[in-house]
């Protein structure tokens, strides 16, 4: 347990983006995504510029674009939803390849796809350049109550353990000839969930006792300081500042 | 069900974020009462459990599958405040580290999947327990009904937020019909899993089912005197 097992999404590196303090990156990301969401969907060029900004960040962080593309699949369910839009939305229709589609529905689909994808890529870049543990320190720096970040830390630390436990149960079920085919399988799966809860919760009780015996009093000792200098804040502000220019242009250009 | 960025417009996203912050703040105070200094490790492990349980896909119909949301289950097992906290933390980590659910939509996601599911699910659960006879079967039945109602309730909450700040030009009626229709089906799966999970935990460690405190008798140890 002691070894630092880095997360799947994290790509170790020493690029300028990796070295920025986590709280600067978090604020920059949030500001960027808010600006993207507030941009009118009809300004297609603005979204191209946003994508170019994110590509620049990816290059600066030396995150391969192929890696980003592979991780974007997380939003597939919403792509399916967006593709339905042109068929169900209201308003005047237009002919595309012989099918009457709603114009506003097409814009809605574009709106969701463009903004959703930009948001996902921005989050992927953050997760790829920031170690999860450090990211939570950044969240704490931004005045998130310590209890929340502690819970999140425990969740991250034991997430892999609990998931591995689930994997061993799956192996055990398969070894006994179980295969989830239809609803009748739900009973077996649910009893696994019950067992998983017991194992997780009882592990939590043991972890708590182990911590108390080592002097835990409700607060975690800070092992790493992630203070940020003005220069670092300024560097992190480059992305939202550029995005703010694009957003302002998108609002003002007729 | 994780709403991405761009689905809800910026002002409503920010307002939803404020509501979510208020809800989580209330949950923080309540969770300390439920778990005292054990809050962090126990809620953390419960969050890890929900995170893992959400990966367990169950077959719904031929080819399609659903997965657990876990709000009601968490509320019944560890209490409503801790439940809200656990699900909110799962959503936060999913948004920050897995890009699952947009960051600007985090408030909307917390309202739908943490606040509404727990409030409705736990509310229905407690109400039913008050009416039903005190037995293990009633706890299971109440869990089933609570989870069954909580998932479509989250869909209704999403539809309401969509009606205020939705970006797509789709009539609210259509969205409501589609969302609630799909989530009634998902709710059945959620209900079956929640009920069986609660009843199997109740059989082994009844003291760990927060919602059933005072209902289940604590297990007694019977020891036959050894024959010489």
From TrEMBL, chain A:
It comes from Actinomadura parmotrematis. It is found in: Cell membrane. PANTHER family: SLL0384 PROTEIN. NCBIfam families: ECF_T_CbiQ. The keyword Transmembrane applies. This is Cobalt ECF transporter T component CbiQ. The chain crosses the membrane at residues 44-65, 72-89, 109-128, 233-253. It is a multi-pass membrane protein. Pfam families: CbiQ. Keywords: Cell membrane, Membrane, Transmembrane, Transmembrane helix.
From TrEMBL, chain B:
The keyword Lipid biosynthesis does not apply. It is found in: Cell membrane. Keywords: Cell membrane, Membrane, Transmembrane, Transmembrane helix, Transport. It is a multi-pass membrane protein. InterPro entries: CbiM/NikMN. It holds the Pfam family CbiM. The chain crosses the membrane at residues 7-28, 40-61, 73-98, 110-129, 141-164, 176-204. PANTHER family: METAL TRANSPORT PROTEIN HI_1621-RELATED (PTHR34229). This is Energy-coupling factor ABC transporter permease. It comes from Actinomadura parmotrematis.
